[in-house]
Amino acid sequence: MKIVTYNVNGIKARLPRLLEYLSEQQPDVVCLQELKSSDETFPIQDVRDAGYGAVWHGQKGFNGVAVLARGVDPVERQRGLEGEPEDEHSRYLECDVNGLAVASIYLPNGNPQPGPKFDYKLRWIERLSQRARALLVSETPAVLAGDYNVIANDDDTFSVRAMKDDALMQPESRAGYRALVAQGWTDALRVRHPGGGVWTFWDYQAGAWQRDAGFRIDHLLLSPAVADRLIEAGVDKEYRGREKASDHAPTWVRLRP
């Protein structure tokens, strides 16, 4: 089973790239982020024509997450996170797919920091941690996949100096992410590539792709039962280099049946 997280940076703008990816790679589950589409304008017919069922949580122009499954319809478990009833951002969607609870996550960026956006980021990480802990307590086989907007380690970026003031790499961001993992989750890409140097994102600016000046912010966290099934984890990097591509590359795990 191949499970993918893919920040598409606008599903309508990247629809040809997404459909191309689905056709060429035939992943079993795809968690999408940054749809930038309302629920009403999500291209569900195109997705269905590609052989995938879908559940989505849209927001016009911003955010937005979805879970796609090949040949089946995901069953929604939870939409959004508890803890801030006034939070209307579409950033969390959890579904049942093939015996797994699969969550698509778009964690807040948090820039500029310090400030209210960074404070929101830290509160959101704590809310995610509470949901993650509940999944572990219930012994639910789960995958938390998405754009976490956290550079967890120094070797997860092309340049510590370039990113030192960014919200993605602040000590508080890292501490929140590490505390989440320490609950008992397996950071699949980190486990399979412990030496770092594996990027999932390359900015559109300053020739970042051409210079391979990227960093790792797309993560797949596996509950213990799922971690036992892990075969491999990686990044389909070449899709970042295609015409009108997202600034993220599809990032994946492969699991035993």
From TrEMBL:
<feature type="active site" description="Proton donor/acceptor">
    <location>
        <position position="147"/>
    </location>
</feature>
<dbReference type="InterPro" id="IPR036691">
    <property type="entry name" value="Endo/exonu/phosph_ase_sf"/>
</dbReference>
<dbReference type="InterPro" id="IPR037493">
    <property type="entry name" value="ExoIII-like"/>
</dbReference>
<dbReference type="GO" id="GO:0004519">
    <property type="term" value="F:endonuclease activity"/>
</dbReference>
<dbReference type="Pfam" id="PF03372">
    <property type="entry name" value="Exo_endo_phos"/>
</dbReference>
<feature type="active site">
    <location>
        <position position="106"/>
    </location>
</feature>
<keyword id="KW-0464">Manganese</keyword>
<dbReference type="GO" id="GO:0006281">
    <property type="term" value="P:DNA repair"/>
</dbReference>
<feature type="active site" description="Proton acceptor">
    <location>
        <position position="248"/>
    </location>
</feature>
<keyword id="KW-0479">Metal-binding</keyword>
<dbReference type="InterPro" id="IPR004808">
    <property type="entry name" value="AP_endonuc_1"/>
</dbReference>
<feature type="site" description="Interaction with DNA substrate">
    <location>
        <position position="248"/>
    </location>
</feature>
<feature type="domain" description="Endonuclease/exonuclease/phosphatase">
    <location>
        <begin position="4"/>
        <end position="248"/>
    </location>
</feature>
<dbReference type="GO" id="GO:0046872">
    <property type="term" value="F:metal ion binding"/>
</dbReference>
<feature type="site" description="Transition state stabilizer">
    <location>
        <position position="149"/>
    </location>
</feature>
<feature type="binding site">
    <location>
        <position position="147"/>
    </location>
    <ligand>
        <name>Mg(2+)</name>
    </ligand>
</feature>
<keyword id="KW-0460">Magnesium</keyword>
<dbReference type="GO" id="GO:0003677">
    <property type="term" value="F:DNA binding"/>
</dbReference>
<dbReference type="GO" id="GO:0008311">
    <property type="term" value="F:double-stranded DNA 3'-5' DNA exonuclease activity"/>
</dbReference>
<feature type="binding site">
    <location>
        <position position="149"/>
    </location>
    <ligand>
        <name>Mg(2+)</name>
    </ligand>
</feature>
<feature type="binding site">
    <location>
        <position position="248"/>
    </location>
    <ligand>
        <name>Mg(2+)</name>
    </ligand>
</feature>
<feature type="site" description="Important for catalytic activity">
    <location>
        <position position="218"/>
    </location>
</feature>
<keyword id="KW-0378">Hydrolase</keyword>
<feature type="binding site">
    <location>
        <position position="34"/>
    </location>
    <ligand>
        <name>Mg(2+)</name>
    </ligand>
</feature>
<comment type="similarity">
    <text>Belongs to the DNA repair enzymes AP/ExoA family.</text>
</comment>
<protein>
    <submittedName>
        <fullName>Exodeoxyribonuclease III</fullName>
        <ecNumber>3.1.11.2</ecNumber>
    </submittedName>
</protein>
<dbReference type="InterPro" id="IPR020847">
    <property type="entry name" value="AP_endonuclease_F1_BS"/>
</dbReference>
<feature type="binding site">
    <location>
        <position position="247"/>
    </location>
    <ligand>
        <name>Mg(2+)</name>
    </ligand>
</feature>
<dbReference type="InterPro" id="IPR005135">
    <property type="entry name" value="Endo/exonuclease/phosphatase"/>
</dbReference>
<feature type="binding site">
    <location>
        <position position="7"/>
    </location>
    <ligand>
        <name>Mg(2+)</name>
    </ligand>
</feature>
